[in-house]
């Protein structure tokens, strides 16, 4: 009789001490690992020219246990070069990703983190984000996705930061979780990972914090998880296909905040596998962001002291390039600021949005001029007609087709004959 009283108590204790062991995680079964080959090929064939893509890929390689010496060495060299060359130009989230990637599992590159004082550099950059919020109407230098990466890396790598400030900033009602009124699942998911890292350190007794802050953080996680789940679609995707991997990670580490009936993990997994076979994750960063969740890993598993694992035998796959006989297509292209400027553009079938913009620029250099920067997702449009996006003002150039925002960028969205394309000056 007494035992039946004590069991739940013991259970509760275990529950709070080792929450990670009770996570329900659905994952791709080992016998089906070949379904993941397209992701591996995409990451291996990455061209190492795009912003912070290398850190995304390296982090994924190490976290899921893909050992491919030559590729890994190349990634590491690029990352180190980038830090040495433009360390202070890196954004806070870029630096955080680099720390996570270089610091994951026992490897000789960890020394680099100390040699270049990357953690204290990150502390400084995180502080600058907060200062920008103070000076510019609550807008960080970058965004909350990156602030979450910052907190996560500082938490995992013993950086210092103000916990009450984090508790205050990451309030789920903060506008920075939203773009154009829409909850950003990627952002919310990254915040859940960061806040859960904090909470775990408290439960493990590694750090002590005010119980008011702990309760606050706990409530934030609870309500963010609710918002993430409310973005679940009928086919199981959460947000869109590109946010689903990070949403899965967030749900893995927060399973005591929702009921089993609220999320069919297997359904989500099946839909993602279908999308992999359709070639949806053709960008290395997209492949890198979805991969960990598919084998039950999360960014909270980044551990500087665990041995590096090897779970995959790489069979080198060749990418097939479709060779269609070239034909021309015609699309309608508009730039919308207050006025709308339009033109018809002819491009080869199989062209991307960016090709249309380039052709339009040839037609009229004044009204269709634009600039872009390479990022981990490909070219990001920074200005059109000389008008520049600015995070401190929450302005950007939105890409649309038939009046609907695209879920891909200018460098990867394939245009169709007769399509109406638009770049629109917008606030988020
Ligand atoms: C914040 C954010 C934005 C902000 C960026 C400005 C800011 N304040 O930082 C805003 C709201 C303006 C934005 C715009 C867009 N975004 Co966005 N964005 C993100 C988010 C949440 C975080 C990016 C980040 O900071 N990464 C971390 C840092 C360390 O990496 P980084 O490479 O240095 O980050 C820069 C780039 O990612 C760039 N960026 C942001 N979005 C996009 C999208 C594309 C296609 C490109 C090339 C670059 C880019 O801005 C970051 C800061 O400078 C990601 C989510 C994710 N999972 O990555 C989505 C995400 C990257 N965005 C996405 C999309 C589709 C867009 C838009 C194309 C939407 C549209 N229809 O207009 C536009 C970009 C149009 C353009 N001008 O080229 C998709 C990309 C999917 C894909 N397969 O390409 C993502 C994955 C969201 C999603 N789940 O759909 N975005
Ligand atoms: C492997 O995938 C197939 C089809 O995609 C599925 O029917 C099967 O159940 C999977 N195996 C396991 C062990 O999950
Ligand atoms: C991180 O901090 C904890 C507690 O302060 C300490 O025990 C641990 O040794 C530190 N780890 C590293 C790698 O500095
Ligand atoms: C917090 O936890 C992480 C992972 O469990 C650990 O690496 C880190 O050192 C901890 N931080 C502190 C300050 O103890
Ligand atoms: C789970 O469901 C039960 C009853 O169905 C409810 O009482 C409880 O609050 C739910 N828990 C969460 C975390 O939503
Ligand atoms: C990789 O291949 C070797 C030899 O074929 C095999 O012994 C090993 O089990 C494989 N490892 C994995 C993770 O599949
Ligand atoms: C496509 O159009 C361009 C000029 O608009 C022309 O030079 C080219 O021959 C056309 N190509 C095809 C395959 O029709
Ligand atoms: C658009 O029009 C509004 C109202 O006339 C004006 O305040 C704003 O500056 C214009 N925006 C641009 C980018 O020209
Ligand atoms: C573009 O083509 C469509 C028909 O294909 C035509 O109605 C429209 O007037 C053209 N627009 C411009 C700006 O030339
Ligand atoms: C463009 O190419 C796709 C497949 O590559 C084909 O289905 C489509 O009919 C082509 N369109 C035109 C107008 O040639
Ligand atoms: C470009 O467009 C502007 C505004 O419509 C016009 O004044 C200018 O003459 C055009 N330039 C060319 C080269 O067509
Ligand atoms: C962005 O806007 C802020 C606030 O108006 C301004 O201080 C800053 O210089 C602008 N940044 C760029 C790159 O134009």
Automatic annotation (TrEMBL):
Taxonomic superkingdom: Eukaryota
Subcellular location: Secreted
One family name in Pfam for this protein: DUF4430
Disulfide topology: 26-265, 105-308, 155-197
Annotated residues for binding of cyanocob(III)alamin: 142-146, 186, 240, 289, 380-381, 397-399, 406, 428
MF-aspect GO terms: cobalamin binding
Span of the signal peptide: 1-23
InterPro entries reported in the protein's UniProt record: Cbl-bd_prot, Cobalamin_Transport, Transcobalamin-like_C
Gene Ontology cellular-component annotations: extracellular space
Keyword Oxidoreductase recorded: no
Annotated PROSITE patterns: COBALAMIN_BINDING
GO biological process assignments: cobalamin transport; cobalt ion transport
Ranges where the Transcobalamin-like C-terminal domain occurs: 350-427
Record keyword Repeat present: no
Keywords: Cobalt, Cobalt transport, Disulfide bond, Ion transport, Secreted, Signal, Transport
Gene3D superfamilies the record matches: 1.50.10.20, 2.170.130.30
PANTHER family tied to this protein: TRANSCOBALAMIN-1, TRANSCOBALAMIN-1/GASTRIC INTRINSIC FACTOR
Family: Belongs to the eukaryotic cobalamin transport proteins family.
Annotated protein name in UniProt: Transcobalamin-like C-terminal domain-containing protein
